[in-house]
Amino acid sequence: MKAVIFDCDGMLNTEIRFSKRLAQYVPLEISLPFFKGPFQDCLVGRADLKEELAKVVKHWGWKESVTELMNFWFADEANIFNDAFFPIMEDLRRRGVSIYLATNNEKYRTKYLLETRGLGKLFDATFSSSIVGYKKPQKEFYEYMLAHIPERKENVLYWDDDAEHIAISEGFGMPSRLYTTFDDFVATMNK
Prior knowledge:
The chain is an alpha/beta fold. It is 48% helix and 12% strand. The protein has twelve helices and five strands.
């Protein structure tokens, strides 16, 4: 094993709570069309989240600015990551194993995670759908990732909490594991 790819939401972050927090102010039936529609273009860099939110916040009844909505969105991010992963990542790097982050995220949240939350210091590179232009499980996401990792795909271990993502990555000949629990992850990595 020369490299490990970590999924973000669902693995490093197992408590995706923004939808629940937003629902306190905006009913899900009002916000859901945005997240199923324009937000999907934001995830792959074809639209800008700030511009798209500006089109809907008044309809949502959000009384603050778009910037304040995004601050509200990202503010809780610092408290939802499983910090137990970080010593494992540091140990992998000490042993010469490259580590990467693979995530479906739009550009502002990606920047927040990497710079403000500090994940950028942990990883050799980050593959975000907003930069790649495709989302997991699209095959183009994995093609891009493998083209930008210097290690041979047989020496790269990919972790994700989504079985569909694992099936696609395995189809590329990359050893892949389904993330279920942190204890299972540790036991598997120790093997």
